[in-house]
Hints:
By secondary structure, the protein is mainly alpha-helical.
Amino acid sequence: MAFNIVVAVVTALAGGIASIAGFGVGRLLTPLVASQYGMKTAMGAVAIPHLIATLLRFWRLRSEADRRVFFGFSLINAAGSLAGALIHVWVSNPLVTIVLAILLVLPSG
Length: 109
């Protein structure tokens, strides 16, 4: 029960940060959920609101989006995400987990 309250508080804070800074939910919520349920479950759980938010943003901005940039970024992002996931599955090494965790937590930009 206490963990659910902590998740709710962190989710609200991360949502506030994300609404201003554009990031926060994944970087704050993923490690918290992973501490209780494991990284695979955390990534799946955090991916759902990310997908919904991305689809809503795209729908609202679809007329102003540069399609060439959108598809170029999407392909690179999808390839990098898939590569990281496959490395994590195939290479069962704590060092890989640490490196991927650092890449997740560090601000990208």
